[in-house]
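Input.
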Amino acid sequence: MITVYVFGNAPPPVWGVTRDLRVVWALEETGLAYRLHPLDFAKGELKSAEYRRFQPFGQIPAIDDDGFRLFESAAIVLYVADTAGMLLPESREGRALAELFVIDHFAAGESWAKQRRPVLAEWAATRLADLDRELGRRPYLLGHTFSAPDILMSTVLRLVQHTDLLSAAPNVAAYQARCEARPAWSKVLAAHQQRLAA
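Output.
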């Protein structure tokens, strides 16, 4: 059984966008057996010597599959897809969208953030326009079947849900809604919110 190290709690600005959601979503989609091992962020469990021996950066998520240990969410999603023989190929688009999220939620008043944000927003809008054209041709990234890249992309798109960037990309917005309408995502997000609110 795969043990998934997830946030037991986290600061409210990151609820619903933490990378452990990707891993649990992939596991739900594939039906592989797993159990969650929540770590207490507030008590510093991510930085404990015990956890850092397992995950040297002290970050979430990480997995232990009967002794095989892995971290980095995209690597884990692809490992889950490969193990299950389902889903399956990571995207660079996430970096700029993640930086927009950080600026808007953690550094909005900083002068560097005010200078950097317009450049990031313009880049993101261009990339989203490209993605919008592609998603006008098919319902998912690889065609007509939901796959691991859709888990990675749709969790990245959550980072800009607080902006108006998706309003100019209706195919991307519809794609995001389609991905998040999946029962596995609803189950994972509800459990995540319940765990972090406790």
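The first helix runs from residue 20 to 30.
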